[in-house]
From TrEMBL:
Superkingdom assignment: Bacteria
GO cellular component terms listed in the entry, alphabetical order: endomembrane system
Pfam family, one: NMT1_2
Keywords on record: Cell inner membrane, Cell membrane, Membrane, Signal, Transport
Subcellular location: Endomembrane system
Source species: Thalassovita taeanensis
InterPro entries on file: NrtA/CpmA_ABC-bd_dom
Source lineage: Bacteria, Pseudomonadati, Pseudomonadota, Alphaproteobacteria, Rhodobacterales
Designated name of the protein: Nitrate/nitrite transport system substrate-binding protein
Signal peptide per UniProt: 1-20
CDD domains per UniProt: PBP2_NrtA_CpmA_like
């Protein structure tokens, strides 16, 4: 009923001057893919609130089995676009894994991930974690995990953890957390794409919804994943989230909406229309201090979207996050969909992902700073985003003050105080940033066999 009402309202508004100019979309029937995660919310809301229909688009949303199937669907044309890991368009464009030119005009959210360990590992970590008033002091450093990993190594047992995909934010965040605590998460090389060369902690891929069960079975001892799969471990009583990515790197970028460059070139007006609808959804998700989040939780809990219990989704989507059972804390910015320019596709966000690919050997050889800038600009498309934003402002559906119309595409440098290891980030100087990180490839270093050389 809500969508029908929205369509009727949109039809009525078409006679007003603000809505008089509809985009002449080249393709009006579209299929978009997503993975069952909380941060697919802009797609669900754009659909349920009728924002796609307002733009003359008739959209089908379809859950995908995993990130590879989703990417292959966009490349092959079975999907017109998708909720993607931010690393996927970048990796595909530079030819790491599947090669294809994928672009993004829209960043879907900030924050939203966590790192969870099993109850047994948490019990072993706890003695190395500072406490105050009987509760652990957050953020929790991976230095508290290091003695546990060392004891496993002494026993000849590998220490296994899960992440969702080799070019996922989750892989890079888990690696960042481990390295900041003095643990080596391992390197990739052209000859060995396991990412486990020289590793203290062995990371492997597990699809997000399977994370809790895989940890419960003892196959992995912890994982990094998006919601609701950290809170699911708390509700099931099988694990403890030790840190959120908000604490790891405040207001870090997460998913993007990805399309093939070919689709955008053939359907430029359609791409702008899609971006308009997604921006409106993001505004709705954050407006009035998250007043719409309870309604969003109910929508996401439906089987066709995330399909997790509403109570579990609400635990992180409505301004709180629960660590140990009963230790629920205020984290109002755990999920951000619009504020802080969350939806703007910043070049500096793209470059951070590229630095992490280089740091761990997915980019095998050194690249000049200019290369990072060029790749970022070939994939992230703020010009499309700002065209859509300008139209929404002209239509009275958005406020011009909420968009960075004068941006050069780069964020202000991230201050050291916003990152767990106290190392700031400036997207305009990627090689200097790589050199500042104690663990990881830098300069002309390469991975040769099991050795870092250069």
């Amino acid at each position: 009923m809500k969508r029908i009402a929205s369509i009727l309202a949109a039809t009525t508004m078409l006679v007003t001057p603000a809505m008089a100019e509809m985009l002449d979309v080249e393709k009006d029937e579209l299929k978009f893919g997503f993975i069952k995660l909380t941060d697919m919310a802009p797609l669900a809301i754009a659909y349920e609130n009728g924002y796609f229909e307002d733009e003359g688009l008739f959209v089908t949303l379809e859950a995908q089995a995993n990130w590879k199937v989703l990417l292959d669907g966009v490349i092959g044309g079975q999907l017109d676009g998708a909720h993607m890991l931010a690393g996927q368009p970048l990796a595909a464009t530079i030819g790491f894994g599947t090669e294809a030119h994928i672009i993004t005009p829209f960043s879907m959210d900030l924050n939203g991930n966590g790192i969870t360990v099993s109850n047994d590992i948490w019990a072993q970590m706890k003695e190395f974690v500072p406490h105050e008033d009987g509760k652990p002091v957050h953020p929790i450093s991976a230095s508290a995990l290091a003695p546990v990993v060392a004891s496993y190594k002494d026993q000849g047992k590998p220490f296994n953890m899960g992440m969702v995909f080799p070019v996922s934010t989750h892989n890079y965040e888990l690696r960042y957390w481990l390295a900041a605590g003095g643990l080596q998460p391992g390197y990739y090389s052209p000859a060995d794409v396991t990412g486990q060369i020289g590793a203290d902690v062995l990371l492997s891929v597990t699809p997000p919804p399977q994370m809790p069960a895989t940890m419960e079975a003892g196959t992995i001892y912890g994982y990094c994943v998006g919601e609701p799969w950290n809170q699911a471990a708390v509700f099931k009583g099988i694990g403890v989230p030790v840190i959120t990515d908000y604490e790891l790197w405040k207001n870090n970028p997460e998913k993007v909406f990805g399309l093939s460059a070919e689709f955008q070139q053939e359907n430029p007006q359609t791409t702008i229309a899609i971006t308009k609808a997604l921006i409106r959804a993001a505004i709705w998700l954050d407006e009035n201090d998250n007043a719409n989040r309870p309604e969003a939780v109910e929508i996401l809990s439906r089987s066709e979207y995330v399909g997790a219990d509403a109570e579990v989704i609400a635990n992180s989507m409505t301004g709180t996050f629960e660590y140990e059972k009963g230790d629920k804390r205020e984290v109002p910015d755990f999920n951000v969909f619009f504020r802080y320019n969350a939806t703007y596709p910043y070049y500096s966000d793209a470059i951070w992902y590229l630095t992490q690919m280089r740091r761990w050997g997915q980019i095998a050889e050194a690249k000049p700073d200019s290369w990072y800038d060029e790749v970022a600009k070939s994939v992230y498309k703020p010009d499309i985003y700002l065209t859509a934003a300008k139209m929404l402002v002209e239509e009275g559906l958005a406020d011009a003050a909420d968009f960075p119309f004068d941006s050069d595409g780069y964020k202000e440098p991230t201050p050291a105080s916003d990152v767990i290891d106290g190392i700031g980030y400036d997207g305009k100087t990627p090689n200097a940033y790589l050199d500042s990180l104690p663990i990881g490839l830098k300069g002309a270093q390469i991975v040769d066999g099991n050795q870092v050389k250069g």
